[in-house]
Amino acid sequence: MNSVAEIIENARGEGRLVLTELESKQLLANLGIQTTRIELATSKEQALALAQEIGYPCVLKVSSADISHKSDAGGVKVGLASAEEVAAAWDAIMVSCLAKFPDAVIEGMTVQNMAPPGLEVIIGMATDPQFGPVLMFGLGGVWVEVLKDVSFKIVPLTKSDAAKAVREIRAARLLDGFRGSDPVDTAALKDILLRVSDFVMKTPAVAEMDLNPIFAYPDGAIAVDARVILGA
Ligand code: ADP
Ligand code: MG
Questions:
Q1: How many angstroms separate the CA atoms of 120 and 129, rounded?
Q2: CA-CA distance, 140 to 29, in Å (whole number)?
Q3: Residue 70 CA: which ligand is closest?
């Protein structure tokens, strides 16, 4: 596995500030944060071989430094159940992404295991001109987009800050389980917040992080998408 320093140096060497999803998840793995399995395929044949190895159902996503919102470009296909579906998804993603971004350089597509459904949450880090690095926690989907139901804490977070970040959102009761579902593992979410906080303290080169979504389960939590942005 590449170290955090290697991942950052490599991106800088290529004149990039935005790490790919693959690089971002490799970085998270270095921090002890669980992610989906992710492998880069640079051809359809390789994608098929990786899908076989990872197992079905799997997920295919465009990998391009020019496309950061992958699903907006038609660059994400989930629940692929067979080699035929992976091959068809490869073609569909290519057509759709090039229609939206004709000049995009597409390095390939990542093949990932399909994370089981969980409660979608997001953890983000941004650099505030006044407060410096700040962590954000919220529920995913409409909760963040429409209701802006998020909490903020200034880095470094204490254990008590992490607990408050999780509790302070208006929809916190959803974490306790609703309509008969089990409560999610908030300890795992607090652990991610603290690991990100520690990392950010040690790594001023990182300006922004977006773990969106994280799937939270009764036992554990997995980063399903990740983006890390370096400072200029
Ligand atoms: P975007 O760049 O558009 O944010 P994402 O990687 O977040 O793309 O994928 C879009 C959505 O697809 C996610 O919010 C999630 O619901 C679903 N998804 C993506 N990857 C996986 C995966 N490995 N397993 C299960 N669901 C996934
Ligand atoms: Mg995402």
A1: 29
A2: 22
A3: 1
pLDDT score recorded for residue 172: 93
pLDDT digits (tens, 9 = 90+) for 15-50: 999 999 999 999 999 999 999 999 999 999 999 999
Among 224, 227, 228, 229, say which to mutate for ligand 1: greatest number of ligand atoms within 8 Å of CB.
224
pLDDT interval class at 175 (50, 70, 90): very high
Pocket of ligand 1, beta carbon within 6 A: 36, 59, 61, 69-71, 76, 78, 112, 114-115, 213, 224-225
Q: Which of 28, 78, 111, 139 to mutate to test the pocket of ligand 1 (most atoms within 8 A of CB)?
A: 78
